[in-house]
Amino acid sequence: MQPPTQTAAPDDAALGPGPSHVEFFLAALIIAVMALMAYSNTFRVPFYFDDRQGITDNRTIDMLWPLWRPLDAPTAVNSGAVGRPLVNFSLAVNYEISQDLTASRDGLDPASYHIFNLIVHVLTAWLLLAVLWRTLRRPPLAQRFGAAAFPLAFVIALLWAVHPLLTETVTNAIQRNESMVSLFYLLVIYCFIRSAGSLRPWMWQAGAVVVCFMGVATKEVMFSAPLMVLLYDRTFVAGSFLQALARRWAFYLSMCLSWGLLGYLVHHASKRGGTVGFGLGMTVHDYVLKQCEAVIHYFQLAFWPHPLVLDYGEDVVKNLSSVWPQALLLTLLVGGTLVALWRNPALGFAGAWVFIILGPSSSFLPLTTQTEAEHRMYLPLAAILALAILGVYTWIGRRIYVIAGALTLALAAATFARNHDYRTEAAQWEQNVAERPHNYRAHYDFGCALLNLGRYVDASSEFILTLKYNPNYPEGHCNLGACLENLGDEPSAKAEYDAAVLLNSNDVQSNYNLGCIYWNREDLPAAVEHFRISADNDPTYADAYANLGKVLVLSNRSLDALAPLKTALDLEPHNTDTLAYFGQALQAQGLTKNAIAIFQKALALKPDSADLHKKLGGAFADDDRLDRALEEDAAAVRLSPDDPESHYFYGQHLSELGQFDEAVAEFTQATKLQPEYPEAENELGNALMGLNRTADAKAAYNRALTQKPDFAEAHYNLGNAFLADNQPAEAEEQFRLALKTNPDYAEVHNDLGNVLMMQNRYNDAAIEYQEALRIDPDYTDAQDNYDALQAFLGGN
Description:
The chain is mainly α. Among the domains are: 16-412, no CATH class; 743-796, Tetratricopeptide repeat domain (Serine Threonine Protein Phosphatase 5, Tetratricopeptide repeat). It is built from 40 helices and no strands.
């Protein structure tokens, strides 16, 4: 038996008069106003869940040029924009708009992203209205529904626009991939419908092909659009597949070329960050059984949208016995659709619309991170609502409009209420864990929300539940550790971080947190190791690169520190703390002028930083520009008068200029602010020596040595003070104490040689001069003293 053949209408006008422009405008306005009312409380909904990877952590959206950057989302994670260049580009546009509207650097104000999503949703509803109206006027349906085609299409589109099942797609910013592809999907159908009644069909068909490629660049579900257009053609226009292909084979071939682009994007997406495809730890058998349960649940939510859940988790079904009623019902529905495609093509088309669009995510291809998700019903819901409304209209006629009006208000109110759950992360995840108490990921995200609010005890409870349902979840251990660390229990926190690293040695955040703990414990080699692992495994983690560089600077490995600090600044160019360490590393490498430029750049961003003024002063001093150094030192002291180090550096540079009285005042103030400050006491002694106040200088050196007995430089300076008072024996004692702490102190060996010469101990003096030259072969004073001693000995 052949399927019934339809005769295409010569043009749309032959099917009867349509709505006036005013009627169409009013219908579109009502849909937009009702959608706006239903979603009016979403514009300040924060980014969370998939928004993090798709938007807040997505470094490819922070600039619109060069164009390849926003068209290429990062593929390391499943960000919602991976392999979907138009979605990522739309996020970049929002980023730019957000920057302009808020005058902020990060471009992450959520309002513009939500406005965009709502605009796309309303446009899709308008297209649905147009497609339904024209479809209901096609020959298979015109006799029964043609006279009421526009009001029926309006009712279906309106109910669809305010249905709560669609809230995840519209309210979650990153789920625009679903609404955008639906817009393109309907636009392809619309272009084809218009081509069927056009005197220049090729123009509409060309538009459909272009839109088909755009849809493929938006989401993978667009692959079925050529098939659905062919099925639409067979059902509502040509009457058979053979007729459709014979008349429009070039059109269908052109649309199918989009599959080449799809293949490239899917390959480039690398299984969407390792979350989609075979061989990822989830069997086809288990996933298919789960979809039997999920799809029937979707249909239930279409008619009774409660409770709605953001994250259903990763659960699968192992045994058919657990879901045999759903599997049986789904089999009957799919079988009924196949029969209807043969016996009642219009009814079959509606069923095929649902199952073909759901197919990529709800059949046999495992999506390991989301085995069930409400956003997948965004476009399929339109067919379910159409079947329901048309069925009820056939039964009760025009009374359907009264029911539909009441139902619209009820659904809009339910959507508004559902969107209220999205108002904060904590509110959404609290509702989620209430509905799915065994979903470890929901407990984890609830814990993260509480952690961000500083509710560490409550967050710890959620992370403990996370680990109860999934003990091998590194992120759960990591964030439990963060809670414990904030509660002051560092040993337990470290144990959790270690557990996370044991499960995943490359876990970015756990290694970073361990690096911070080791840094606090002054175990710098261990800190370097963990910061390096963190940075190596997340090329966008600016803090990991920055801390790696900082610890290397503190480890006197300034050359090694330059590369990670430069990377950190490429990621966050306005981070003044990182700039300060970068300047220090440059200065340590002798690149003083470069360091000065970096410190000045940091000060331009943070002019009231005493620490930056202090560092810039040190760099100017190294560049022999002591006048400029004093200006920066004075600024540091003015901005931070209670910082002993600022006074200390100011005093050092005053001493270098011979301004000993002022230097004494600064060192004295430093020691008042920090009584245990041996370095300041030592420098105070040097300044007092410059004023020939030897007794006071000795007292300062002795205070330094009381605080720090192994302070070689203070022993050396005290020895020189004794020497100035013509006390060579006491000087020798201090020099030898200095060498006991630092045997490679060339200046001490030289001056000890001088003391020994004063005591006529020539051989001992020669040994000290030779030791000084061994340490520093270019030490001219030691060489001159040694030569003079040799000449003296030779003359005698």
